[in-house]
Design a protein that fits this description.
alpha+beta, 24 helices, Helix Hairpins, OB fold (Dihydrolipoamide Acetyltransferase, E2P), 5-stranded mixed sheet, D-amino Acid Aminotransferase, Chain A, domain 1
């Protein structure tokens, strides 16, 4: 009997080695060689067989087994990861002349000729993967370049990153690989299709989906994003890397089994670099991943070290940034939707046109003033831009192609949803439906109540929120807490598992706290910053309800307009009834009262937020700062201690630079929050 057991174990061990080798080879062919030899179904079959073998023989499990990618428990927070060698930022060039100027400076400093290595600038999240003795050890985000976040379990969950480097390439004892995590366009479409089926809000763009995927607290959620990765550099190395140039280094990384971008090219002179940049600016839509420029590096690694850095920008590299993706198309019509506060929001209906790999058929028009200022008229040929390569907007009409004298557009005087009068108050840019019971407002209010910045009921997205209203299951946000299995069974395509998930998320949301409730109630002008201030000052919804306008104005950051809006909201019996129903349902309507002089890490510090942060919403960042005793202001002044700037930061960042105010990115903010008081 013992002999048969040993034989069985030896056979299982041999088969497990064979399966791991087949899976590793399949991954290498798919992600590195771009030459898959087996189907996804065949890969799944190999993986299942290996998992069964390891379950039957736990002693056969190895750290680099494909089954061990997602094995860690969800994290409570990320630990800091200090980069031994800083991950530098890059100066930007926006045209050929700026590239030539960079070339002239570099040649003057170098005192000799050199060639370039050009790499496509992937629009994702910079990160590192560290290997010791060929085995994956740690993974981290870039952060502010000096300190990132340790996201090791999540990096393990990214299937395109090997858990073991290929031995035949003789990896050094220690190597820190740097690269970009991103989401392919094809995978982005599939993920959003799946989210739509589940009634969840689709992701806005691949970059945000990738960034959020790397920073999930649960590695299983990271695995679901199906992220890709391209390696392009190394940080710390203990041992030998057989490469003298950047282009040669990328080839070596590929030999180690790491995925790299096949479009990396050596260019002998700056004219070749300019040609490469121009080609990919025009051809970027042909790729299955988003790029926003080209990274141009002096190829010679020794010369890179010699030239060094200026500030935080290397003298040996520059990023050529593409122009915002634009196209011309026909404006077929202007329509409006109704927001949760009754705002009448015009948008353009366009003849579909591809821009930056996305077919655009809608674009924002903001309000009547914008339409008038740009002189946009139905029937015009218009220039459409994906602002920041994300949100489509109309730049303006091509007046030379305008035919005749089409009528100027005017917003409707009645709500398109309920027929009630539309009112535009003096001094305001936005018009509003005057009917608080408007069905369109209710759909938006329910969607907003369930959103991340409010009560964060993840399973109720845009589609399900609309269905709940249209089926008359929900007449106000309090009715969400009266939903049960029987009611949800009437919603089309809602299975038992989905119903259970929705009810579980609804129950969890009850404990979000007073500030989130105030945000979720859609009180005009009240965001999370003001909601936190009100919740901390009064401690309960009852106290806020009874407060006078003057008492509300005593709260720091709450001005006359906000105070009047809050007071008016609670004057309405229908609103007080909704709040009472929420309390009866068990929703937490209180908060710890905060003393004016907070003792948190950020006590006495004033922050201003600007731009889009990689993984935090504006509301989440505000909540973190407030919880640590800090204050978030809406404008930059000499009293501002820090400006937290993200992508597409505007005038606030410029003002901070002018005043010499300390500027942080998201990682810098997190480092400040995690530092010792």
């Amino acid at each position: 009997m013992a002999t048969r057991s040993k034989s069985s174990l030896r056979e299982a061990e041999a088969r497990a080695r064979e399966l791991r080798a087949q899976i590793d080879d399949a991954n290498h062919r798919y992600y590195v060689l771009d030459d898959p030899k087996i189907t996804d179904a065949e890969w799944d079959g190999l993986f299942r067989e290996l998992r069964v073998l390891e379950e039957e023989h736990p002693e056969l499990v190895t750290e680099d087994s494909p089954t061990q990618r997602v094995g860690a428990a969800p994290l409570e927070a990320f630990e800091p990861y200090v980069h031994t060698r800083p991950m530098l930022s890059l100066a930007n060039a926006f045209d050929a002349e700026e590239l030539r100027a960079f070339d002239a400076r570099a040649r003057k400093l170098a005192g000799r000729d050199f060639s370039y290595s050009c790499e496509l600038k992937i629009d994702g999240l910079s990160m590192v993967a560290r290997y010791r003795n060929g085995a994956f050890e740690r993974g981290a985000t870039r952060g502010d370049g000096m300190v990132g976040e340790d996201v090791t379990p999540n990096v393990r969950a990214i299937r395109s990153i090997p858990l073991a480097l290929r031995k035949e390439a003789k990896p050094p004892h220690l190597i820190e690989v740097r690269g970009e995590a991103f989401l392919r366009r094809s995978d982005f479409v599939k993920i959003n299709e799946e989210r739509a089926k589940q009634g969840l809000t689709p992701f806005a763009n691949p970059r945000n989906a990738a960034s959020g995927g790397v920073r999930q607290l649960d590695p299983k959620e990271t695995a679901k994003r199906k992220l890709s990765f391209f390696a392009y550099a190394v940080g710390v190395v203990e041992g030998t890397v057989p490469a003298h140039g950047q282009f040669e280094l990328v080839k070596y990384l590929a030999a180690l089994g790491l995925p790299t971008d096949k479009h990396t090219k050596q260019c002998a002179a700056i004219d070749d670099v300019i040609g490469f940049c121009e080609h990919w600016e025009n051809a970027r839509e042909t790729l299955d991943y988003e790029i926003d420029g080209v990274v141009v590096k002096i190829d010679d690694l020794a010369l890179q070290e010699k030239l060094g850095v200026a500030g935080r920008d290397p003298r040996w590299a520059i990023a050529f940034k593409f122009r915002a993706a634009e196209a011309q198309t026909k404006l077929l019509g202007i329509e409006v939707n109704v927001g949760r506060t009754g705002s009448i929001n015009p948008y353009a209906v366009l003849e579909p046109v591809p821009i930056g790999g996305v077919v655009v058929s809608r674009a924002t028009l903001s309000n009547q003033d914008v339409i008038d200022r740009k002189d946009i008229r139905v029937g015009d040929t218009v220039i459409v831009r994906r602002a920041g390569d994300v949100i489509p907007e109309i730049v303006g009409p091509v007046l030379g192609l305008r035919k005749g004298n089409p009528r100027r557009y005017k917003l409707p005087t009645t709500c398109p949803e309920c027929g009630s009068p539309v009112e535009r108050l003096e001094g305001e840019a936005v018009a509003y439906c005057t009917n608080a019971a408007c069905p369109a407002q209710l759909r938006e209010r329910v969607r907003h109540w369930c959103s991340r910045g409010a009560m964060d009921i993840e399973r109720i997205g845009d589609i399900l929120a609309a269905q709940l209203v249209d089926l008359r299951l929900v007449h106000n946000v309090a009715d969400i807490y009266a939903l049960d299995e029987k009611k949800l069974e009437t919603v089309p395509r809602m299975g038992q598992k989905s119903i259970a998930n929705v009810l579980e998320q609804i129950e969890v949301s009850k404990s979000r706290g007073l500030a989130r409730v105030l945000v979720g109630l859609s009180i005009r002008y009240v965001g999370l910053q003001n909601a936190n201030a009100l919740a901390g000052a009064f401690g309960s919804v009852d106290a806020i309800e009874k407060a006078t306008v003057e008492e509300l104005q005593e709260v720091e950051g709450v001005g006359e307009r906000i105070a009047e809006s809050v007071h008016f909201f609670f004057e309405q019996k229908i609103n007080r009834d909704i709040v009472e129903s929420l309390g009866d349902a068990g929703v937490l309507l209180t908060a710890p009262k905060r003393a004016r002089a907070s003792s948190g890490k950020l006590a006495g510090k004033t922050f201003v937020l600007t731009g889009t942060l990689p993984s935090l919403t504006r509301e989440e960042a505000t909540e973190l700062i407030a919880a640590a005793g800090g204050k978030v202001s809406g404008s930059v002044s000499k009293k501002t201690d820090y400006v937290v700037a993200g992508a597409e930061a505007g005038s606030k960042l410029a003002k901070a630079e002018e005043l010499g105010t300390a500027i942080l990115d998201e990682a810098g903010l997190r480092a400040l929050l995690s530092s010792r008081a």
